What we know:
Layout: H1 2-7, H2 12-15, E1 19-24, H3 34-42, H4 51-60, E2 65-70, H5 85-90, E3 99-103
Helix pairs in contact: 3-4
Amino acid sequence: KEALDAVAKKTELGRQHDIVLLIRLREVREGETIEEMVLDQCVPEIKVIDAESIRAILQRKESRVLFLLDGYDELRPEARTAGQAIPKLLSGKMYTKSTIVITSRPSAGVQQHTQPDCNVRIKG
């Protein structure tokens, strides 16, 4: 619910960002890039845009992008390995100025991705 409210700009967090992207982690495939996830899950099929264009937009607006990663506990094991897009995003290797919110069951191991400038709040 919080993720959907942020996407709809009903929350302060959602209103603070120009681009709010809800990524359902259960749908992420091994080897898929962040830009491909956005293209597959956030862009209507009728829009003509490619992954390179999405990358350019995300880089240009990086500090105004909110990634809502829904269901970390549902992320496939092969998509959690080092070098895959989600671990790279969470470890600060890409889109370092963006904001990331992760929803997950507490036992899923999200804490391994926390950084010194990271605010982790586990609810539920």
